## 1
Amino acid sequence: MLNTFLFSALTSKMLPTDYVGFTFFVGCMAMMAASAFFFLSLNQFDRKWRTSVLVSGLITFVAAVHYYYMRDYWAAFQESPTFFRYVDWIITVPMMCLEFYLILKVAGAKQSLLWKMIFYSVVMLVTGYIGEAVYPGSAALWGFISGAAYFLIVYEIYFGEASKLAKAAGGNVLAAHKILCWFVLVGWAIYPLGYMMGTTGWYNSFIPAGNIDVAYNIADAINKIGFGLVIYSLAVKSQQD
């Protein structure tokens, strides 16, 4: 099976109209370029912000590596690489939650906030994978649990402890926190919508099924690179103050 996959990946040809394959390739290159940018800029920051920028680079680097494999999988089989996508998310989404904690440490954020957000993100992703790939016949149930975990993250950053800490920090931290919140509320919303479009169950009664990979690819690049650029901008402004 592995030899078949490698051979197919090397010999498959993408058609000019293969927008899924095209966005996989562009997403891979964009996130690799973003990783190089974040890593090469580390020396301009002091230790206080270096970790945050490093995590931004790691998020896009991990995504770029997975996109390389997802692109080859799509080229070989013309199937959505669900497994590789969830492996990517299970690593990068908790790291994006880590970014909230890192910028809020200046206001006294405790590790309990970090672990709570990581827990919500893991529940969101694990139950999403179960509903989409393991038990698609129960997609509605698992999707409801996954969606609930997503809204708990949204609640935490808009109204919970994270929001209170951001207001206490004020200034550039509060401004960056607000932008990251919009990324989660608007940018991350494509993932539960994509889940509903790609699985069977009560979802199909009001959302048509369809190929969501192009939207996923664009959303991944915007969300992950955008997260990193917000952190980078915050670090630059904080060093200038």
Note: Residues 47-77 form the longest helix (31 residues).
## 2
Amino acid sequence: MKLSVANDSGVGVTRFGDIIYERIVAMIADGTFPVNERLPAEAKLAEMFGASRPVVRDALERLRADGLVVSSKGSGSYVRQRPDSSVLKMVPVGSLADVQRFFEFRAGLEAEAAELAARNWQADDKERITLALQKIEQCLREGRLGAEEDQELHDAIAVATGNQFHVSARELFRPHFAIGHSVTRSLSLKRTPEQIRSVQDEHAVIVQAIFARQETEAHDAMKRHILNARARMFQGV
């Protein structure tokens, strides 16, 4: 099961590591590597994928960061949870690692946006944010995906910062934002009503902190929300 990549140097290391990362995710999702079972050793994985051990180690570090595997000192890496296999069908082939990296980027960017919005929002911003939150609520009642409405809320918060660069960043990376919102909203429809409600509750906490001009609380609530969204991508259903 070797993967054809020219070499393990420079940019290629990152790309090759991403491919291996995605292959291991797929093998966890389809049960090849069962939950609570130990993954093959680094050397064995390197042999399986035709990669160097440092590249495999990089992939395993990402899997640990995503909560899919856990390491036991002296024993190796164990599968912690099995993600919904549909995740792999929702993102372009070979880009799953990039989707996760973008969540990392969003966690910082949007937390700062929420903090600025709490400081700077005006009456029209409050109206725009409130309307977006209500639209998501309507989607929940009707059992609709609500990915565009979710984006609209985050867009409204960016506008409320009063800083055009936050708005420009959302436009520049709109395809990346769209994938993240679409995947997380699609997966949420497979979850229990309580789990779906918890996501909207996170939105409500962010909005409440913004309207109360509680900058630190808004920052922290948004960061939690984005990191939770990242984790929810790999939660089994």
Note: The radius of gyration is 20 Å.
## 3
Amino acid sequence: MSVMWEDLEWERLAPGVGRRRLPGWDCTAGLVVGAGAALMVDAGSSLAEGARLRTWARELTGHRVTHLALTHPHFDHVFGAAAFAGVEVYGAVGTDAVFARGGHGRGALRADAVAEGLDAGQAEEAADALVAVRHEVCGEWTLDLGGGRQALLANVGPGHTGHDLAVLVPGEVEVVFCGDLVEESGEPQAGPDAVPSHWPAALDRLLDLGGEDALYVPGHGAVVDAAFVRAQRDALAARFGVSR
């Protein structure tokens, strides 16, 4: 008996493409299914959450996750990454330096996680286990997942962080995983690693990538359309005093 997306409380967006809104911080994790391969977009906020995503993906696809794309280096999107043993990990250029042992990035991620309410032990465990990002995307990178399924990884930042990656899944219904460049359930968050002067341009690149008819999947909140992304672009430009 096959498992349907809805059986596991996943939202099916297009054939072979879905996402799950995770509890706690309402982060999105995406799944793109190919023939014998699967791409997970973001990994959850802890090793336990990453392990749940891995299990759900296997139940949905019948095989393991083979690729993991991290949209940006914030704890709620990356702390589950080590649960995906043996996968090919992708991120925007500079992401691996944030994760590097001995650097300030891991400590900052750990501190931010604890400040946001993650158990200190879980934060320590996840930070210590952070995986290397072996494939850093400078421009665009196309993944062939088999069975005619492709995913385009695009370095569209900086914006929300210095290292923002988007994922376009072509098809009859095109789907764009935006990470936290787009947020629907609250105001876009601009922390100390944000690059506000470039954020509106990053959203312009997202719109160029997906076009008018795509589904845009924010890092937090409900799926939106191009008009929402454009309105958020204009609001951010006004907020940060950025002109076209």
Note: Helices lie at 47-61, 75-78, 95-99, 104-115, 120-128, 199-210, 226-240.
## 4
Amino acid sequence: MGLHILILGGTTEARALAGALAGTRHDVVLSLAGRTRAPMAQPVPTRIGGFGGADGLARTLRTEGFDLLIDATHPFATRISDNAAKASLETGIPAFAFRRPSWQRQPGDLWTCIDHVHAAVAALGASPRRVLLAIGRQEAAVFEAAPQHAYLVRSVDPVEPPLALPDVGYILATGPFDAAEEHALLVEHRIDCIVAKNSGGSATYGKIAAARALQIPVILIERAAEAGLPTVTTVEEALVRIDHVAAPGRKRGV
């Protein structure tokens, strides 16, 4: 007997797992937050939009008869991850997180590791710099507090409203970005500092590798602690955990 599975997605990992489950005995729904204007086509049925917090997610899990919840959201989507953990606890419906491993410092990396985006503003310092801002659009306005720098902001969707900064440019692009492309971008725009999140995975690692080669400092925003769900890091590990939940004789919600 297959499971009715809700995947909280929007990541490469979520799409890969959904693809691995498509056409199997399991009934899968992939949920997207709806923050991207033109999301990629997905291999399973999708829903778009929030749930109304942990209580709303728990209500959805119950009323729609889900047997398993998988949090495959972005490593920095802490609110929905917290909600997933709370909803699983409230309903007794099994849940786990699917996370790409974080990047690890390599010889030659010039990293300043910080805990949150506001600390990145201070870490840039007082002297003017040419900054590649690669943190997405939602928190870009924080850097209006440091108008002495020149910024190149890269995001999937436009930053709206545009930043109130005297020297700012925008690039709309979706990864993956390879190291050679990133090297050329950094040289072309004379970037001397990168602000990024430790998202992990390979799709956006190119800028980290290029910065290492060019000896460009990176201000790296580290992840918050996990919400407490069991965590897997590969599709194969996820499929094993799903099979465990689906094992004959296992009571739902245990």
Note: The mean pLDDT is 92.
